[in-house]
Amino acid sequence: MTFPSPEAITVVTGGAAGIGGATSRRLARRGDRIVLNDIDAEAAEHTAGEIRAAGGRCEVVVGDVTNPAVVATIRAVAEEAGPVEVLVNNVGDFRPAKRDFVHSSPAQWQRMHELNLLHVLHLTHALLPGMIERGRGAIVNVSTVEAFRGIPGHSVYSAYNAGVSAFTKSLAVEVARHGIRVNAIAPDLADSEQTPAALMIGDRDPGRVPTWVPIGRFGHVDEYAAVVEFLSSEAASYVTGHTIPVDGGTLAASGWYARVDGKGWTNFPREA
Ligand SMILES: NC(=O)c1ccc[n+]([C@@H]2O[C@H](COP(=O)([O-])OP(=O)(O)OC[C@H]3O[C@@H](n4cnc5c(N)ncnc54)[C@H](O)[C@@H]3O)[C@@H](O)[C@H]2O)c1
Q1: Fewest CB atoms less than 10 Å from the CB: which of 24, 105, 128, 154?
Q2: In a domain, 209, yes or no
Q3: Does residue 90 fall inside a structural domain?
Q4: Is 157 in the active site?
């Protein structure tokens, strides 16, 4: 039987914009019936409208996925529409705690926990029993390269995303026998609403981006969605428990920069 099956439901959180928006659109093009959750009602209806206009199927659940009542509604709407086979836990954000750790507050850590890890547990916990019952499922979580590479100023974000990747690994082992695969992607440098390339580059020379990112540019959101599509497809039927970096090579380069003069590489920023 093909995976996902034609009658099955795919749930995407934060599915209106950015990587989540590209994922909703791409999986709808594949033929998935999408249940799109997003906190932004207007953006959600816009994306759902585009999906339907292109011949796809999409239902919207507006609300903050960190709210357990919204998780319950996502479950009710999705399971009413059909069996859930694909879950993309995409919501995450580094912005609520962007100061260095010593200046951050427990209230910020709490919000970072809710936004980056806790809702992944809640929604997975809500949808997993149905997947286990049918013996079919693919869960794709969205982590970050900072789960693997340090990032000053974002230790709390990086800790909770390391949690997402560790959860991915251990849950994959636990549920593999039920026909369910659990993987994640670790993005870097998506040109999305959260991290627009223009804002990230600021007043610096955009010509220097290739000294920093081996592939030489920021990522298009659909390039991340393409890996989510792969991980949630039959093509990845023997892949589970992994976090795949989708980063233009930054994690592999870690600390190495192409020289501006084009003469090789440096790990000394003053030579970059
Ligand atoms: N942009 C990057 O370079 C990058 C790098 C590493 C990791 N990530 C991760 O990728 C994921 C997507 O990032 P993005 O850049 O596409 O984000 P984005 O902010 O551009 O888009 C996020 C989407 O989720 C929705 N959303 C936000 N909070 C929500 C909530 N509480 N409940 C429901 N919906 C909510 C937003 O309305 C929006 O539609 C996040 O988990 C992020 O941490 C992104």
Answers
A1: 105
A2: no
A3: yes
A4: yes
